[in-house]
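Propose amino acids for all 230 sites.
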């Protein structure tokens, strides 16, 4: 078995946006999978250490139970249900927690539609016909239907045009201001650090740097090696 991560330690404090940046294959997405219980899907496991959420170990907690505890993941590649409408996709995100509470469903839908008005315009449209940026909004909206305490975002800007990327990060900031703690993996390192409170820089299975995001942006080695600046 290949060891993807070795002796890493990271924390996300309530109310923060924390960014995980670094090259492809460094272990960022593996860290997210370890947190939300998805390592087994890829044949992996946590061999030592612990994962703690709100002072409770969640190391071996099934993913469906983590959702109930307030952890929600937006996976890389969005993974919306393409043949279902926008509204149906959002309702699928709601089902686990409030299956029969139609009043709460309406409230959560309105919350998402206020955040992403384009989804309200396209609520009857099949998700597979949306643009990449709209699908990413839908994936985030579906995760927010659970009203999570912690939102995990895996490469939210992947494949999006520069205009969509800036708009998306503004929405991420808005979600955070509304009370949701966010941990994100992001290839657009500069953008991630500009919006984050703190950051961790991964380097092939380990954490090379950790600091406040502003200080990482000012760090000469980080700028040269990870931001592509001279």
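Proposal:
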């Amino acid at each position: 078995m290949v060891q993807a991560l070795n002796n890493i330690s990271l924390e996300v404090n309530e109310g923060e946006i924390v960014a995980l940046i670094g090259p492809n294959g460094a272990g960022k997405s593996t860290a997210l999978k370890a947190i939300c219980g998805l390592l087994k899907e890829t044949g992996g496991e946590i061999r030592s250490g612990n994962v703690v959420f709100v002072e409770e170990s969640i190391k071996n907690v099934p993913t469906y139970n983590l959702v109930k505890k307030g952890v929600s993941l937006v996976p890389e590649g969005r993974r919306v249900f393409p043949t279902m409408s926008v509204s149906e996709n959002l309702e699928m995100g709601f089902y686990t927690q409030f299956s029969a509470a139609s009043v709460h469903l309406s409230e959560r839908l309105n919350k998402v539609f206020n955040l992403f008005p384009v989804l309200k315009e396209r609520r009857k449209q099949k998700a597979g016909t949306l643009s990449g940026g709209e699908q990413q909004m839908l994936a985030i909206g579906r995760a927010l239907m659970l009203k999570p305490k912690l939102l995990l975002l895996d490469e939210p800007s992947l494949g999006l045009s520069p205009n969509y990327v800036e708009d998306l990060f503004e929405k991420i900031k808005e979600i955070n201001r509304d009370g949701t703690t966010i941990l994100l993996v992001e290839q657009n390192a500069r953008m991630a650090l500009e919006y984050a409170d703190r950051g961790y820089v991964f380097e092939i299975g380990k954490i090379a740097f950790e600091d406040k995001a502003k200080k990482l942006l000012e760090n000469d080695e980080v700028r040269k090696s990870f931001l592509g600046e001279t």
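Strands lie at 17-21, 52-53, 56-57, 71-74, 150-154, 181-185, 198-202, 207-212. The mean pLDDT is 87.
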